[in-house]
Amino acid sequence: MNKQKVTLIRGIPGSGKSTMALQMDATLIEADQFFVHKDGKYHHDRRFIKDSHAWCQLEMKRLLLAGDDVVIANTFIKKWEIVGYLKAVQSLGLDLDIEVLEARGEYANVHGVPEDVVCRMKEQYEEFALETLMCSLRSNESPVQ
Known about the structure:
This protein is α/β, with parallel strands linked by helices. Helix content is 38%, strand content 13%. Strands 2-3-1-4 form a four-stranded parallel sheet.
């Protein structure tokens, strides 16, 4: 029997995160889903970014506890942005396979993120090793420097 899995996909807008995620045999969750209203249209409101990620983490935990494999596709530009998700996974106490993938494609971004914002995200994109972050979390050190 395969171990339950959580996959986090990171990348700038238009890099193919959602496309990658949809090819996986797992339930897709994105913070952007928080902004899809009952009319089926996307209505982003930056005032609710923290709420969207809180919802995304809660939904991830709910699905993992239900036994689903989960894939989360968010930008995760900075290390600290992914650490909250890793802590949420860790808090469940489940024996999970965890992986972080990077989307590096160049597609049109479907949410119309302005080019200057995309450029800024490219400049701020932080590289990290998942193993290093997980070791820091296990030892209760601050994984973000």
